[in-house]
Every structure is written in structure tokens, then in C-alpha cells.
Amino acid sequence: MSSPHKYTLAGVMGWPVDHSRSPAIHNHWIAHHGLRGAYVLLPVHPTKLEQALRALPTLGFSGCNLTIPHKVMAIAMVDKIEPLAQRIGAVNTIVVEADGSLTGRNTDGFGYIQSLLDVQPQWRADAGPVTVVGAGGAARAIIVSLIERGANDIRLTNRSGSKANDMAQEFGAPVQAIAWEDRHEALADIALLVNTTNQGMHGQPALDLNLERLPVQALVSDVIYVPLETPLLSAAKARGNTTVNGLGMLLNQARPAFEAWFGVLPDVTPELLAKVRATL
Ligand code: NAP
């Protein structure tokens, strides 16, 4: 955490990393709160990740974010891992402690849950069954966070069925694996649908999912934010469902990390939203 006089440094390590919107988000908050510091891009090759992480205290960094492909590897490289990050199996935020040791956190799930609450403040994880499409890194963070919030019926479906089966076994009772070919039926009676695959992202085909069985009251979310409205979200909107795009998750996951480094919990304001939307 910084004092008002300290110049605080943070950044994002990835490979590649130039596409990251994180500098726009964090540098906006630094300026908005009148803090001294900077948030920079840190292109770090996977073979150099441990060296780069260990150099953070020496270079005067308060911490950093991790993005593709470092989130899982970093678990074995930090001194302490918060229990939530341990359960998720990935770290997206590193905090340099006062003694120079490194703590790994994961704020992706927080970002996702907050993005739902921003759109529907009365949203509850136990309001009804949830269908999660995809079983990669984003799905892990979202599923663990949904369970923490009380979700008790999660239907998980993934193109490679073995990954969904493994995850259901790992996380236990609230998670039930559904065969990929049965995914359309898995939308019956649900309160929340989330797409965690890359299908619908710019350059990718739309997610192949028939919404016929989806209740019109269900909230439909997509972790993708390029484009802001994926074909899944437009189809859901057209039939009357409330939708949540991936930008809220991206912006909200940054808030607790910023607080850990700069000592202020920042807000997602319309001004910040407009600034980041302009980069998409
Ligand atoms: P990942 O670990 O590589 O997982 C990718 C997922 O997509 C897997 O479940 C994979 O299924 C599925 N998939 C890929 N091609 C497919 C296809 N043709 N048909 C059906 N499913 C397919 O990736 P990730 O880190 O979880 O990221 C997933 C998405 O989330 C990306 O678009 C990423 O940009 C986005 N994301 C957004 C945020 C945010 O803040 N909004 C944060 C993290 C990630 P298989 O297992 O069968 O390959």
C-alpha cells in the first residue's frame, strides 16, 4: 500500500501483453485519485517469469497483474497464495509485501460477480440453477466464486467433456458435468447462463447454443468484451433476457488489485467505462 508521497509502480506481465487494457484502467485511477505512480506493460517470456517476479521488490514495484500465459505457472513461484486463488488454481494479482515477499491473489471471480451486481443489484447466486459453458481458466474463477456466493446447482458443459468431468469431480456437489451435446437442454429452468469460451469473440464463430429452453427471466452473461455484444448476448437480448458483457468483469477485477497497491478502492465510473470502451 502506498503513502501519498510514495511513487507507486505496478504493471501487467504477459506474453504477449500489448493488447492489455489494464494500463488504461489503472492509470485512469492513479490520475483520478491524484496519486503518484504508474502502471506499465511488462512483456515477460514464460521462461523468465520467476526471474521477473523476484525482481519486483528490487525494482520498487508494489505488485503486478498476470495475464496469458502466466496465471497458472505463477502459483508455484510466489511465497504465499490466498486460499481463493489456491482453489481457483491461478493467480492474476501479485502483491509485494513489506518484507519483499510475494503474495498471489485471484480477483477474476470478484470481478465477474461484481459485474452481475452492477447490472442487477438484487442478483443472488442461489436464485436458481446456473449453466456455465466452457471449462478453462475463466470458468474456474467464476465457478469457485459462484460456489462461495452460495450457488448450489451449477451445470458445467465443455466441448472437451473430460475437462468438465474433472472440474465437477474437483469442486464437488454443486457442480454437475453435462455432455456437450446436451448443452441446449441444460438451459431449462436456469437463473443464470455464462459463456466462458472464446466463441463469439472477434475473429471467432458464434457460440453454438440454442436458447429455446432458456427462461426469459434468466440473466445471460458473456466474459468476452471484444465485441461488447457477442452474438449470444444479442440473441438473448432480442428474446428479452437481461445481459451482462465481459467489460464489467475486466474493470471490476482491477479494483481490489489497485486497492492492494495504491491503498484506495477505486470505482468503475461512466467516465472510465467510456475511456476503456473507446479502446475496444
Ligand atoms: P482457456 O482456459 O483457454 O479456455 C477456453 C475455453 O473455450 C475452453 O473451455 C475451450 O474448450 C473453449 N473453446 C475453445 N474453442 C472452442 C470451440 N470451437 N467450441 C467450443 N468451445 C471452445 O481460456 P480462458 O482464459 O478461460 O478465457 C476464455 C475467454 O474468457 C476468452 O475469450 C478470454 O478473453 C475471456 N476472459 C475474459 C475476462 C474478463 O475479464 N472479461 C477474464 C478472463 C478471460 P476446450 O476445453 O474443449 O478446448
**CATH homologous superfamily title of the largest domain:** NAD(P)-binding Rossmann-like Domain
Strand order of the largest sheet: 2-1-3-5-6-4
Poorly predicted regions: none
The domain count comes to 2
Q: What's the average pLDDT?
A: 96
The CATH class assignment of the largest domain is Alpha Beta
Gap between N and C termini, in Å?
30 Å
Radius of gyration: 19 Å
* Percent helix range: 25-40%
Give a structural overview.
The protein has helices spanning 22-32, 49-55, 83-88, 108-119, 137-148, 161-171, 231-238, 247-262, 270-277; strands at 8-14, 37-43, 61-66, 80-81, 93-96, 102-105, 130-133, 154-157, 175-178, 192-195, 219-222, 242-244. It has two domains: 8-106 and 251-277, Leucine Dehydrogenase, chain A, domain 1 (Rossmann fold, 3-Layer(aba) Sandwich), CATH 3.40.50; 109-245, Rossmann fold. The chain is 32% helix and 19% strand. The strands form two sheets. The protein has a six-stranded mixed beta sheet, sandwiched between helices. A six-stranded parallel beta sheet has the order 9-8-7-10-11-12, with helices on both faces. It contains nine helices and twelve strands. It has 280 residues and is of the alpha/beta class. The two termini are 30 Å apart. Helix 4 (108-119) crosses helix 5. The chain is globular, with a radius of gyration of 19 Å. The model has no long low-confidence stretch (mean pLDDT 96). NADP nicotinamide-adenine-dinucleotide phosphate (NAP) is lined by residues 108, 111, 134-139, 158-160, 163, 196-199, 201, 223-225, 246, 249-250, 253. NADP nicotinamide-adenine-dinucleotide phosphate is lined by residues 108, 111, 134-139, 158-160, 163, 196-199, 201, 223-225, 246, 249-250, 253.
